[in-house]
Amino acid sequence: MNYLPLVRRLEAVGFRAWPASSVQYDGSWQVRLTAGHPSKRLNSIVPLDPADHRDVEIRLEKAQRKFEAYGRPLVVRETPLAPPLLMDLLRRENWQCFEETIVMVCDIAHLDLPDTLDHLPSHDVGRYVDANLLVDLADPALKPALAEVVSGIKPPSGLFVIEDAEAGPVATTLCVQDNDLAGIMSLSVAREFRRKGFAVEILAAALRWARTRSAKTAWLQVTATNAPALALYARFGFHEAYRYRYWRPENGA
Q1: Which residues form the signal peptide (predicted)?
Q2: pLDDT digits (tens, 9 = 90+) for 105-153
Q3: How far apart, in whole angstroms, are the C-alpha atoms of residue 234 and residue 164?
Q4: CA triplet 188, 193, 196: central angle to 5 degrees?
Q5: String of b and e for 143-180 (b: at least 16 CB within 10 Å)?
Q6: Contact by Cβ (8 Å): 199, 34
C-alpha cells in the first residue's frame, strides 16, 4: 500500500498547524526558520520529494548559511518523503540522528469518547500561551514567540486550558481543524497533576470540539520514547501513520 499521499497530506496540515515565521523552498525542500522560537519543527529542512536529490551537498551548504543567519543549528527532518540519496549522504558524513517522532491518526467520526467533563475552547491567545508555558515549566521569555506562532495559525483552532482553583493551569492543548482533519498540538499536563485524568479530559474535550466542526480524522505527533503519551493515545484509538527523525551534523550543537 502506498502511504505517501497520506504523508504528504499530514505534512501539509502540520505546516499550517505550526507555522514557521520564514518558509523558503529550494526545489521541494522546505526550509523553515523562526528566529524567536527554538522548536525543531520551526527550524529545520524538510525534503518533500524522494526524487529531489540534485546537488545535495551544495544545497545543504546554502541552507547552512540561512540557519547561521537565524542563529539556529542546521537540522534536517527526515520523513518518508526524504530522498534516499540525501539520507545516504548524511550517514556518510556522520550526521547524528537525535530524535524520532511518531505521527498518529484516529478516526473520530464514530469514536466512543470517554465520558469526562467537557471544556469549551478559548480564543484568548495570551491566556493560552501563559498557561502552556506554566504547565510546561518553560522559559517565560518564549511568550512573544509562542504567541506569534499560535496567532499565525490560519485554520480554525481551539485553545484548551484546564485550571485548578488553587494551582492555576494544570493542562493545556491546542486543536487545529483543517477541513476534515483535526490536529492535536502540544498536549501537556503539569507534572504534579499527572495520572489524575486531566490528559484524558482535555484530549476528549478537544476531539469533541473537532467532531462538532465536522472533522473526521484526528492526528498528532508524539516522541517515540514517550511511553505514557503513547498509551494514552492508543486508548483513544490512535495508531501510527508514519515516523520522522531529526538529523544534525556531527559537530552540531
Answers
A1: none
A2: 999 998 999 888 789 999 999 999 999 999 999 999 999 999 999 999 9
A3: 27
A4: 100
A5: bebbbbbbeebeebbbbbbbeeeeeebbbbbbbbbbee
A6: no
Tens of pLDDT, residue by residue over 4-40, are: 999 999 999 999 999 999 999 999 999 999 988 999 9
pLDDT for the residue numbered 1 = 52
Place of cell 482533519: 181
The answer to whether the CB of 19 falls within 8 A of the CB of 145 is no
Is the pTM of the predicted complex or chain greater than 0.90?
yes
Contact call for residues 233 and 122 (beta carbons, < 8 A) = no
